[in-house]
Amino acid sequence: MSSASLPLPGGLPLPDTQGPPGREAAQARLYLLNGFSLFLAGDRVRLPLHAQRVLAFLALARQDGVTCSRDAVVGRLWADSTVEHANGSLRTALWRIRSAWAGLVAAGRNELALGPEVSVDLQSCRDQAGRLLSRDMDLAAGDIDCSTLTGELLPAWDEDWLLVERERLRQLQLHALEALAVRLRKLGRYPEAIDAALRAVAIEPLRESVHAVLIDVCFDEGNVAAAHGYLRQYRALLQAELGLEPSPQILARFRTPATGEVRAPARAQPLQAAPSLRPAPAV
């Protein structure tokens, strides 16, 4: 039986409608970062949680090029339910999804996939990260935007099948932000490089390579005091969390290559008395 004729509880047939008029395929957008939201032709569509879970699961499968069997979807999303109840829940979820727009899900006899016309913010994040991490690819116009590289994957959902996916995304975002900071440093765009590096530090505060980039940017700008400040913060965190010291590689940045002397902040010069502004006495 095809998905177009899956019955609802009560025997109602699934409508063959392509959704409300005016909802174009190219305007179907699914957002999974920082929470679930779905937009069709610019309008937000509200779906029940069980339908949201199906769309999210299929979106994650699509990013890996996987087409899911119905049994796989049921087994992961309703693992604690009986087979009969789980299959019924899937049918109801598909009804609600296709009632919004049939193109959201491509449903075969035994397989399910997210509709090919649906864009997903998670895939945009992965594409951006891929360009940042590739030495051979030029950056797109929006690749220096860090917002898509810092979102969390459905943070309010308590789902076992999301645990590994969240860690995969975290690692990808972390490496992409570090790569972005390095690229921006080479371009001399220091404020943006510092912003990208600090966002990476927020994801993984103990990642030394990110602190090294942050310190390098400060030295490039001539902000030796700022570089020492970031080193102090990193050293204190490292000692408190792991009882370790920063590596010799990061400490070597604070010595001049020629003499090996410590690159210390410039000493503040004593203030000189300001010249008097009182008029000279009349002669």
TrEMBL record:
GO terms for molecular function: DNA binding. Transmembrane segments: none annotated. It comes from the Bacteria. Residues 120-258 form the Bacterial transcriptional activator domain. SUPFAM superfamilies: C-terminal effector domain of the bipartite response regulators (SSF46894), TPR-like (SSF48452). Residues 1-23, 261-283 are annotated as: Disordered. GO terms for biological process: regulation of DNA-templated transcription. Residues 1-22, 263-275 have a biased composition (Low complexity). This is Bacterial transcriptional activator domain-containing protein. It comes from Pseudarthrobacter enclensis.
